[in-house]
Every structure is written in C-alpha cells, then in structure tokens.
Amino acid sequence: MKSSEIKPGTGYGNIFFGMSREQLKNLLGEPDEIESTPHDDEEEDVTESWHYDELEISVSFEKTEDWKLCTVAVSTADATLHGEHPVGMDEASLSALLAKLDVKNPLKEDWSSADAPDYKAITAEELEMVFWLEDGEVMDIQWGPFFIDEDTIRWPSNGTAVM
Q: What is the pLDDT of residues 87-135, one digit of tens each?
C-alpha cells in the first residue's frame, strides 16, 4: 500500500469509510492487533480498533454505526495529502499545507506530558482531521468521514465523499 492518498471525508487509498470489518479484512488481511474499547461504560458504545503494523495504519469500527469503518490513522511518511507527505513535516510546513487546503483557524492543543514534553494536536475541522506532532514534527494523522449534522455521518458512496 505504498504512497496512498489521504482522502478527507472518504478514506485512504482503496480503504473507505463505511466499509465492513469483512470488507477491510478481505482487502488488508488479518490485523496484527485488535483492541475493543467501551465508551462511558455503555455496552452499546464500543470502538474496535485494528492495527496493521507493517502498513503503519490503524482503523476503527463503531458498534453504534453497525460496525462500519469510522476512523483511519496513519504514521507512514508514504501517505500523501493533495500530493504532499504530511508525516514528517514540521509545524510551519503543515500550517502552509492547511492554508493551501483552505483550512481556517486550525485548533492547536497541547497534549504534553512527562513522557512526551512536546506533544500537540492540530485539528482541521473542515477536513475532520487531527495531526499529532511530537517535537515539532507530524508523527500521526487521524481522520474520519464528514458529517451532515452533529449526529449524522455522510458516508462515502463507492469511495467518493459528497462534499
């Protein structure tokens, strides 16, 4: 899966939001690790995360969305966004890319801790994306589908998001 395109609101390469677990397994094979995480102690609100170490990709399926693929995260420098490789970019280069993509006022949050003294998230709401930076460099990118309203996901149709 070399040099796959990050598609805001749609997916990553030939992975798209709304896929079933079976569809993804047919595409990528068995994940290296599966984690199941309940939210707010509710049995109905569970996230299942699949990790593919060699591909440097993680995906999440939500029980409340009939186990559809809802989130993709990548940490590979091979990932592209509008022809550029954001993983490994410094914050100034990321800011320039986001400006080029017409992202207005990205939200910057400090997530630093004793283990990670320079760790932050930059959220681009227009793209439903979060860029995680450590020591001033993009290390990981997470994104999901676009929303029609606060509660309704705009699922891509045949891998194409409706903007």
A: 999 999 999 999 999 999 999 999 999 998 999 999 999 999 999 999 9
Dihedral over alpha carbons 28, 18, 157, 124 (to 10 degrees)? -100
Cα(105)–Cα(11) distance, rounded to whole angstroms?
23
* Domain chopping of the chain, boundaries: 6-144
Whole-angstrom distance, CA of residue 23 vs CA of residue 68: 10
φ, ψ of residue 3 to 5 degrees: the values are: 45, 60
143 contact partners, CB below 8 Å, separation of at least 6:
6, 8, 9, 71, 72, 73, 127, 128, 129, 130
Element (H, E) at 2: none
